[in-house]
């Protein structure tokens, strides 16, 4: 990786500097658009004590479910946890701290962090356990909850195409949380399906400008289907 070329040759280079007890954002929604190779490498490296911010925690034995197997996540901040039995077990036992966040609030906390906004008010969660211990302020007679934004040490994202300068394009629903997470970390690592030369991506279709991306690695993806539903004849 030299100059404007942000491509790295292996996962060790891609994840250089990621150590125990860091805050890590991981893109994806269910199993759609997750950086599979980066997740697996963190699992194999045995990095512990992570504060993980992701919509959900994968499924048993795949995606972030791998990190749960080794108890690598100390605190999980997410929105949906319904497909992972181990997640439920760790949460109920208290072995892993879980901070459930409404999905829209989670998205905005990440987006605001990337925009340099430290906190914002939202009506979502008022009067529920989500608002406990947080500042409440009224605007036009309506109560709002103060939510602090998120910013991470690392963001691990998955994109469809990248150029060597780190400009990213996501494909359809695999976009999900990836673009906003790419803006909200000290180091953003993008695992992609295809890398092209500068100038080959249409500037008007770039979703994440390369200024936000520190490293790019070409991966191979299983793209497992979380719940396969077929029509019976």
Into which percentage range does the β-strand content fall?
25-35%
CATH class value: Alpha Beta
The helix-and-strand class reads alpha/beta
Distance between the termini: 53 Å
CATH homologous group name:
Glutaconate Coenzyme A-transferase
Number of helices: 6
Describe this protein's structure:
The protein has a single domain, classed as Glutaconate Coenzyme A-transferase. Helix content is 19%, strand content 27%. It has helices at 11-14, 36-45, 65-69, 85-93, 103-114, 178-182; strands at residues 23-26, 50-53, 73-78, 97-100, 119-122, 136-139, 142-148, 152-163, 168-169, 185-196, 215-218. The strands form 2 sheets. Strands 1, 2, 3, 4, 8, 9, 10 and 11 form an 8-stranded mixed beta sheet that branches. It has a 3-stranded antiparallel beta sheet with strand order 5-7-6. The chain is globular.
Which keywords apply here?
alpha/beta; 11 strands
Please specify the SSE layout and strand pairing.
Blueprint: H1 11-14, E1 23-26, H2 36-45, E2 50-53, H3 65-69, E3 73-78, H4 85-93, E4 97-100, H5 103-114, E5 119-122, E6 136-139, E7 142-148, E8 152-163, E9 168-169, H6 178-182, E10 185-196, E11 215-218
Parallel strand pairs: 1-2, 1-8, 2-3, 3-4, 8-10, 10-11
Antiparallel strand pairs: 5-7, 6-7, 8-9
């Amino acid at each position: 990786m030299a100059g404007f070329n942000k491509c790295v040759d292996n996962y060790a280079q891609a994840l250089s500097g990621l150590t125990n007890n860091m805050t890590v954002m991981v893109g994806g929604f269910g199993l759609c658009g997750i950086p599979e190779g980066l997740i697996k490498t963190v699992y194999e490296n045995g990095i512990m004590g992570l504060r993980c911010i992701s919509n959900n925690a994968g499924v048993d034995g795949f995606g972030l479910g791998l990190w749960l197997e080794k108890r690598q996540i100390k605190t999980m901040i997410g929105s949906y946890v319904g497909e992972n039995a181990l997640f439920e077990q760790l949460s109920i036992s208290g072995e892993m701290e879980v901070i459930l966040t409404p999905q829209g609030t989670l998205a905005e906390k990440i987006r605001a962090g990337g925009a340099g906004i430290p906190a914002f008010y939202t009506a979502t969660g008022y009067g529920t356990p989500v608002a406990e211990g947080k500042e409440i302020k009224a605007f036009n007679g309506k109560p709002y909850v103060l939510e602090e934004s998120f910013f991470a040490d690392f963001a691990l994202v998955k994109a469809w195409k990248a150029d060597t300068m780190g400009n990213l394009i996501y494909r359809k629903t695999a976009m999900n949380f990836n673009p906003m997470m790419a803006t909200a970390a000290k180091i953003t690592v993008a695992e992609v399906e295809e890398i092209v030369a500068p100038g080959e991506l249409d500037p008007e279709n770039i979703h994440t400008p390369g200024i936000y991306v520190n490293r790019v690695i070409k991966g191979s993806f299983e793209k497992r289907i979380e719940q396969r539903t077929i029509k019976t004849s």
